[in-house]
Amino acid sequence: MRRDQCVRGVAIAVAALLLGLGADAAEKSKRKPPADYFPLRLESWWQYRSTQANGAASEFRITVISEERAPDGTLRACLELRNPNPLIVDCYAKSATEVLRTTEEYLGGGGRVAFDPPRPLLRLPLRDAAQWSWSGNARLHTRVDERSRVVGREKVEVPAGRFETIRILTEIEQGGARATKTSWYAAGVGLVRQTTESSGIGSTTELTERGGARRR
Fold first, then answer.
1. Which sequence spans correspond to the domains of the chain?
2. Phi and psi at residue 28, in whole multiples of 5°?
3. Are 174 and 11 within 8 A, CB to CB?
4. pLDDT grade, residue 200 (50/70/90)?
5. What's the CA gap between 186 and 48, in Å, rounded?
6. CA distances from 171 to 39, 72, 102, 124 (A)
7. Residue 170 and residue 162 in contact, taking contact as beta carbons nearer than 8 Å
């Protein structure tokens, strides 16, 4: 009798363990991947309007013109800025832990910069109070030191709509000049708003529309 009870007890314990493992696996399968604050789907585009402190405004479009997945899983993509002609091509490497700007090329003979080390745009996944820094050379071999940190979450309204965003503050020192840049990123969208200020002169850039992603 005792032996039967012992066997039944072991069977119940094993069954409970298996059920627990199954529930844990099911729970893990339901977990969503981290929100994507810098989507890089081929042919995606973002239209922005930039307004200077004196009221002067201009528009430009950024488009993903190339995209490939490296063997290690890193996504490499290049983005073209045009206004309306192509002006700049920036290339990025995006992994599960960061988005790095690797090169910047000014078209029409304006020169090309390969950032060494690569210049971090975002540390992923974005978390409250996260921070990162970078030092290196930019265009014309100008020394740049910058420090970025997540400073909060905000609802932002721009011409393209209303978005829940993460706000990032970046302090920049370049060639002896100091500047402050504040960027608002929305999950699944990317950059929706950005302000810059240097020596009392500022500008605001806002997303006006987006689209064009090629479906897979």
1. 1-31, 45-211
2. -65, -40
3. no
4. confident
5. 15
6. 24, 32, 20, 19
7. no
Rounded CA gap, 144 and 146, in Å?
A: 6
pLDDT reported for residue 176? 87
- Tokens, residue 58: 């201009």
Q: Give ∠ CA 153-159-160 in degrees, rounded to 5.
A: 75
Residue 82 has pLDDT above 80, yes or no: yes
pTM of the model: 0.83
3-state SS, one letter per residue, for the chain: CHHHHHHHHHHHHHHHHHHHHHHHHHHHHHCCCCCCCCCCCCCCEEEEEEEECCCCEEEEEEEEEEEEECCCCCEEEEEEEECCCEEEEEEEEECCCEEEEEEEEECCCCEEEEEEEEEEEEECCCCCCCEEEEEEECHHHCEEEEEEEEEEEEEEEECCEEEEEEEEEEEEEECCEEEEEEEEEECCCEEEEEEEEECCEEEEEEEEEEECCCCC
Please say if the pLDDT value at position 29 is more than 90: no
Residue from 102, 99, 98, 97 nearest 117 by CA: 102
CATH number for the domain running over 45-211: 2.40.360.20
Percent of residues, the chain, with pLDDT higher than 70: 84
Distance CA(89)–CA(109), nearest Å, equals: 12
